Each structure stands twice: as C-alpha cells, then as structure tokens.
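Reviewer 2 asked us to include a model.

Predict the structure of this chain.
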Amino acid sequence: MLSFLLGYLGWHYSTGFAEIKNFNWLLLRRVWDGFSLKSILRTFFSPWKRMAEEYKRGRPEEWFGTLIVNSLMRLVGMAVRSLIIIIGFLIFFLGIIFSVCLLIAWALWPIMILILFFMGVKLLIL
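Predicted model (structure tokens):
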C-alpha cells in the first residue's frame, strides 16, 4: 500500500504535473491560433474582406468617392478586428487564469484528499 501511494505521488508530481503543464500550453496555443491574433494584428489596417475599389483616373469626384469607400472599408476592418482582438485577448487571459488555477489545484489535490478523508472520519466518530 505504501509503495502504491509513493508511486502515485511520484507520478502525480512528475509525469502528471508535466502533462497538466503541456495541456495548459496547448490550451493557450489553441486560443491564440483559434483567434488568429498574430494574423489579425499584422493585417489590422487592411480593408474588411479585402473589399476595396480601384482608383480611376479621371474626375476628382470619382477619385475621392473611391477614397471614401476604401477608407470606410478600412475602418470597418479595424472595428471588426479590434473586437476580435479584445475578445481573443480576454479569452486568452481567462485561459491563463484557468491554467494557473488548474496547476495549483493539481499541486494541492493529494493534500485535499487527505484533509477531506480525515474530515469524513471525524464526522463518522461524532
């Protein structure tokens, strides 16, 4: 029984802890890649869905009209990307908090089992 307990504690604080750390890293990586934050930050000022008109030579009204449409498409792109960046960073931050809580819970789990066991025994005695 003692060798089982020592074996479990050895696994829990070595291999198990490493697996939890890898799980947390993959979770944060999936959030980062899922929101494509690197790509969104790189293309922040690009027009939305690449919707842009070509500038035509000729009358200045047409050129300014194209300028306004292209500027609006860039503003729409910036607004949508800003929203995605805010949501992505919020979920990434929540993932970091979850990861830290999971690591702390994993580290304290054997101690909590013992505490809960002795609390239950105490309730049975009373």
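The longest helix spans residues 60-125. The chain has a mean pLDDT of 87. We have added this to the supplementary material.
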